[in-house]
Every structure is written in structure tokens, then in C-alpha cells.
Amino acid sequence: MAVYAHSPHADLPPPKSTVGVVGWLKKNLFSTPVNSALTIVALTFLCWTIPRLIEWALINADWLGTTREDCSREGACWVFVAVRIKQFLFGFYPGSEYWRVVLSFSLVGFLVAWLLIEKTPRKGFVAFLTIFVYPVIAYILFYGGAFGLPVVETHRWGGLMLTLILATIGMFCALPIGIILALGRRSSMPIAKSVSIVFIEFWRGVPLITVLFMSSVMLPIFIPEEVNIDKLLRAIIGIIFFESAYMAEVVRGGLQAIPRGQYEAAEALGLSYWKTMLFIILPQALKLVIPGIVNTFNALFMDTTLVLIIGLFDFLAVMQSAFADPKWLGFSVEGYVFVALIYWIACFSMSRYSQYLERKLHTGH
User: Could you tell me the fold of the domain covering 163-361?
Assistant: First the structure.
């Protein structure tokens, strides 16, 4: 019987239509006739709008000057933004004290960067400084009244500075309160569960604009006359309560996604309730709901514009007040584009970092 030996052949390369640029286009943009038609329509629209947008915003734009007479071209007048940039950033904060705001934000930026960079040492000590020491330093720098710093009342705070303060404090406080409320809602203790449910459903059922109005107008009615709560503090309390209710539901979704076997394994090891939550359940639950947490933070960052109803001038409100200046009438488009760009950069940055965290903490493989 004859035996034929076949030498192995090298694998044939994949078809050119499935790899490279052609393969990507075919898979993502032209996979079906409907997708192909939508791709053509979208490309046509982009080819028609993008050149005109670039021409208006960059090529034919005016960049340098101090008055509206310097805006003589047909494009955007970024002179308006340049002239008002300090007001947009700091609101009505005294110009001679801008360094205090810059120093405070630079300090928190340094601390956060230290915590986010993986190879930096002594993260526990830096976290302690960020959580417990920095807020005191920031308050002294912003408000003054100590170490020879003049007092700057909160009604003079505004612009992007105020937006960042409201959003940062709201995010920082809403997350731990939301976690506690989520645990309370899933608790087996009737009182803790009832209180958590009532709190969450009440604040989720009221619009934020109503919360801000109530915190500013109605809250002073229920406190003694000799007690004066700052308007900014009232707004911050309302924002924290409102966002913590939404954060609680996001965290509760993550808790419900954890298999029952994780709880049983912790009980088999003899772990207490809090050790089970802190070391086993919450790390897994929070990892699952990172997109929801960041989405809530993005919504909070944009919802800070509603504080205008109680007389606080955030970034958008300061921009709108500048439109009323007779010297700069007619440049609202440039202002809104600038505000939208700043908000987009902030929200996009948070979104990209959340995706990085998802990839870093993905341990299911």
C-alpha cells in the first residue's frame, strides 16, 4: 500500500476585502444597503457643513482687538470672548485676587494628578490631604478672612470658577451618600430601608430647578431668623441631595448585578456585613456601574447652569449677562459656541477617563 506524505503549507492570507482600510469600511460603514445609504448621506452632510464651519470659526475669524470695530471680517468675532475671558472664568471676583482661585485649582489639579498617576508613591497620604485638608485650604483661599486675605463674599463668585465648585462638591459628596442610600434600600432592616426609599423617591420626583428654588426661598422659612445660611451653601445642599438620590439608584443597579454566590462566600468566611460590602461586594458593584456614575457626573456638571434661578451667575449665566452689553450686541453665537466647547471638553474628558477605568478594572477575562 502506497503512503503519501504531504508537507504542511503556509496559511493563505485573508481576502483583501476583509482586512485593512477596505475591510474596516465594508464592516462598519457599508455592511448593508441601508448602512451604505446612511453613510453616503452623512458624508454628504459633513462635506457641506465642515468647510463652512472651519471658514467661519477659523479662516475668516477675527482674533485680535479690544472693541467691536476690530471685528470687520465675515467670520466669528473671537475678540468678544478674548475681551471678556476673565469675567467668564472668574465672574465678579476681584481682579487683584485672581491668584487665589488659580492657586486653589492648581493645587487640586496637582493632588488629583498625583492620585491618578499609577507609579506615584504615598497615595494614601495624598488621598487624606485631598479629602480632609484641601477643602479647608480651598475655603480659605476662595472666601478669605484668614492669614490677611480679604473676604470675598460668595455672591461675587461666578463664571467657570463657580461651575467647577458646584460640580466638584456635588460629585464628591453625592457618591458616598448615594452608596449609603443604595445599601439602605437593599437592607433587611425595615427602618433603614423605608427611610432610604422615601428619600430617594422624593428627590428623584422633584426637578432640580424646583429643588434650587426651594433651597433658596423656602428653606429660610423653616430655620430661626438668627441663623443665616449662605445662598451658595443652600444651592450646594440641594444639589447634593438631588444627585445623591440618582447616584443611589445607579449603585443599586450594580449591587443587584452581583451574584448571590458572592454573598454566600463571604458568609462562609465569617465576614461581617460591612466587611462583606467593603471588600467583596462594593468593589465589584462600583466597577460595573462606572458608565452610570460618570453619566450622572456629566449630568450634574451641565445642570449647574440652573443655579441662575436663585441669583448665582455660573459660566453660562455670566456669558448671557455679557450679551446685554450695548458695546457687544450681536455676538451671542460666538459666546454660546465657546461655552459649548468648554462643557464638551470637560464631559468628554470624564467619559474618556471612565473608559480607561473600565479597561483597567476589567478582570472578567
Answer: MetI-like fold (1.10.3720)
So where are the chain's domains?
A: 94-151, 163-361
- For residue 227, what is its C-alpha cell? 441663623
CA dist 135 → 104, 111, 125, 139 (Å)? 10, 12, 15, 6
- Residues across the chain: 365
pTM: 0.85
pLDDT in tens, 306-333: 988 888 889 999 998 888 888 888 888 8
What is the rounded distance in angstroms from the CA atom of residue 14 to the CA atom of residue 348? 37
Scanning the chain, the segments in alpha helix (DSSP H) are: 20-28, 33-54, 79-90, 98-116, 123-128, 134-143, 159-185, 190-204, 208-213, 231-257, 260-268, 273-276, 282-288, 290-303, 315-323, 332-361
Q: How far apart are the first and last CA of the chain?
A: 50
d(CA 81, CA 253) in angstroms, rounded, equals: 43
Question: Half-sphere exposure of residue 187, counting CA atoms within 13 Å on the CB side?
Answer: 18
pLDDT digits (tens, 9 = 90+) for 199-214: 999 999 989 888 888 8
Torsion sign across C-alpha atoms 262, 268, 274, 278: negative
d(CA 237, CA 185): 22
